[in-house]
Design a protein that fits this description.
Elements (H helix, E strand, L loop, with lengths): L1 H22 L1 E2 L2 E5 L14 H15 L5 E4 L4 E4 L5 E3 L12 E8 L2 E14 L4 E6 L2 E12 L5 E9 L2 E6 L5 E4 L2 E6 L2 E3 L3 E5 L13 E2 L6 E4 L2 E4 L12 E5 L8 E4 L2 E10 L7 E4 L2 E6 L2 E2 L17 E4 L2 E7 L2 E3 L6 E4 L3 E7 L3 E5 L16 E6 L4 E2 L4 E8 L10 E6 L14 E5 L5 E5 L2 E3 L4 E5 L5 E4 L2 E3 L4 E5 L14 E5 L2 E3 L13 E3 L14 E2 L5 E5 L2 E4 L5 E12 L2 E4 L13 E12 L9 E3 L1
Parallel strand pairs: 2-3, 3-7, 4-7, 6-8, 7-9, 8-20, 9-21, 20-22, 21-23, 21-24, 22-25, 23-26, 24-27, 25-28, 26-36, 27-37, 28-38, 36-39, 37-40, 38-41, 39-42, 40-43, 41-44, 42-46, 43-47, 44-48, 45-48, 46-48, 47-49, 48-50, 50-51
Antiparallel strand pairs: 1-2, 5-6, 10-11, 10-19, 11-18, 12-13, 13-14, 15-16, 15-19, 17-18, 29-30, 29-35, 30-34, 31-32, 31-33, 31-35, 33-34
Length: 612
């Protein structure tokens, strides 16, 4: 009798769900009330098992049957690793640890809207909050992503002198010490902090001239509740009251992961913390961010940091990427980074086939191209195209049976390859020109972050306009490219930077921080380069116009290996907020450039310039 009652209860529950869904179906659109799957807010219970089952059921019922909207009730939802979707995922520019624990797993869906109605999605442990794979026309709207216990530890400096530094960890930080020193812990994880970023307590800006702090916490001793003394940590720049975000450099998962998707829209979504990037997209086409934020929870937020790395990062995408009306603050790297990935030539077979390898330890395991793509061989030491572009006839994994986890590809082209392109000397790389997007980055605020404001490495049109770059600590805008380090493509051909305001960049020095705007490709043998990396005779080049620079130091523009550069109608003012310290004392520094126009700029005095 009891068994029959349980069976009847299950059937009634299934009928209730089906009825709830069916009554919300209008025309070709289906609206799913997620409370019908038991996803109720403000319960503090683990919603992961229910969400996993709900998404699997919705996918089974409605895949290929028209638009579906998943509506969440406002409130707080908790998601733990237990009961989440388990998936092997290789994510560009992240640690390739597997498997991943995924809360929202969306795969192979067309025309899906997730409407959070302002909901707070709170995650625990080490999780990937949202992953969308192989889907088209997916919209994420109006919700928050945060973690109950972030893996970055926040501490306040209590005392600092010649004997060491005493610090107090924030109330939410679970800390301890053992024979190996200081550590923090959470649900299923332990971190040992080795580096840190210091923030001013009132302004939340990165402390002037501190950059990445070395944290020798191996011999800490407790001095009171949540307090520790580190005798080997001695830094005169650390003053009582300063806030330090302590990091371990691990980055297993972003807040949102997009892979092999087309036409994705993210609107009014706020990421308050993620263990890696805020958003990472790879091999996607057409992504629109509207009012997307990687940001604190307002002025009352006790935290000073957001993500472990970039706010947004786009690897090997195409079509158009648009980020407008966003707020990016407190992250440990760029607001936006757009690039492809160079493969290194490691072998050759016959006239038309090359073996090529992903080189960076955080970038491998996913597809790189497909038949019909146009590929340009690169002479890596001088960063110049070598021979004519090639078209892929076939591409297949060389070291794995499937794409997942791949490091090497055998790539066959439709025409013969130049005979000089071999694996000898590790000289040659391959750039996929097809998988490179155009970019609009407009009306955003980037502030109080580590390292850089924005980074663009794509040959297609880039427009960065009407943005505020406020105390980015390093370079505000970087145009880079290298084939021997990060292996991030590629040359910029058409970039417009206009009507932006730059306030006190370069308060610390990091990689590539030569000026407020730094055009800095890594070229190991610049003296042997015959052409130029960025720009080019038949392209518009790089135009920097009608911007306002409010700065305490000298360098405004640094450009290396650029053909076609305009710097005009910009307004420069100098302030006394900090003491100048940059090693580059010139407003404009040009190294191996041509076709440069510098006109009609307004400054307190003539802009100093050096040409090398």
């Amino acid at each position: 009798m009891k068994i029959r009652l349980k069976q009847l209860a299950r059937r009634m529950a299934a009928l209730t769900i089906a009825t709830a869904i069916a009554t919300a179906t209008a025309g070709a659109e289906t609206i799913v009330d997620m409370t019908s799957y038991g996803l109720h807010p403000d319960t503090r219970g683990n919603m992961s098992p229910r969400l996993t089952k709900a998404l699997a059921d919705i996918s089974r019922r409605y895949k290929g049957k028209g638009a579906v909207t998943l509506k969440f009730a406002p409130g707080r939802y908790s998601f733990h690793p237990k009961g989440s979707h388990v998936k092997e995922l290789y994510i560009s520019n992240h640690d390739q640890t597997n498997p991943k624990q995924v809360a929202f797993w969306i795969e192979g869906i067309d025309s899906l809207l997730i409407d959070g109605n302002g909901a707070d999605f709170i995650f625990h442990g080490t999780m990937l909050p949202v992953a969308v794979s192989g889907s088209t026309h997916v919209t994420l709207r109006d919700f928050h992503i945060d973690f109950e216990n972030p893996h970055i530890a926040q501490a306040t400096i209590v005392k600092s002198d010649s004997t060491g530094i005493e610090f107090e960890v924030a109330p939410w930080v679970k800390a301890g010490h053992d024979k190996n020193g200081f550590f923090t812990t959470g649900e299923g994880w332990t971190e040992r902090q080795r580096s840190g970023i210091a923030f001013e307590p009132e302004t939340r800006r990165v402390v002037y001239r501190t950059a990445d702090l070395y944290l020798p916490l191996d011999s800490v001793v407790p001095t009171g509740p949540r307090r520790y003394f580190a005798p080997r940590w001695r830094n005169r720049a650390m003053l009582p009251g300063m806030i330090v975000a302590m990091r371990s450099w691990t980055r297993p998962t972003p807040g949102i992961f997009l892979a092999d998707c087309t036409d994705t829209r993210i609107s009014n979504v706020k990421v308050h913390y993620a263990q890696g990037m805020g958003l990472l997209a790879q091999m996607c086409r057409d992504i629109t961010l509207e009012g997307f934020e990687v940001a604190l929870r307002g002025d009352s937020d006790p935290r000073y940091f957001t993500t472990q790395a970039d706010a947004t990062h786009f690897s090997g995408c195409k079509g158009h990427i648009s980020s407008t009306g966003g707020l990016y603050e407190g992250m440990m790297d760029d607001a936006i980074n757009v690039h492809g990935t160079y493969l290194k030539v490691v072998g050759r077979e016959g006239a038309r086939t090359l073996r090529a390898r992903y080189m960076h330890g955080q970038s491998y395991g996913f597809r790189w191209g497909e038949p019909g793509d146009t590929v340009q061989p690169i002479d890596a030491p001088v960063m110049e195209p070598y021979g004519n572009p090639l078209v892929i006839a076939s591409i297949r994994p060389a070291d794995t049976p499937e794409i997942t986890g791949v490091k090497e590809f055998d790539i066959t082209f439709t025409t013969d390859i130049d005979t000089a392109i071999t694996a000898a000397g590790g000289r040659f790389g391959l750039e996929n020109l097809t998988w490179s997007p155009s970019v609009t980055f407009a009306d955003n605020t980037v502030r109080n972050n580590r390292a850089r404001g924005s980074l663009f490495s794509t040959p297609r049109r880039v427009v960065a306009e009407r943005n505020l770059f406020d105390h980015t600590s390093g370079t505000a805008i970087l145009l880079c490219g290298d084939c021997m380090g990060w292996y991030e493509t590629g040359a910029c051909r058409d970039v417009t930077i206009r009507n932006n305001r730059f306030v006190n960049a370069l308060t610390s020095l990091y990689q590539f921080t030569e000026a407020v705007i730094s055009i800095y490709p890594e070229i190991h043998r610049l003296q042997d380069q015959k052409g130029y990396f960025h720009g080019g005779k038949s392209y518009p080049g790089i135009v920097i116009e009608d911007n306002t620079f409010d700065t305490f130091d000298a360098p405004l523009l640094y450009a290396k290996s650029t053909d076609g550069l305009i710097f005009r109608r910009n307004t420069i003012t100098h302030n006394a907020d900090y003491a100048p310290f940059h090693h580059n004392r010139f407003a404009i520094k040009l190294q191996h450039c041509r076709s440069v126009e510098i006109t009609d700029n307004s400054a307190p005095s003539t802009l100093s310039m050096i040409v090398e």
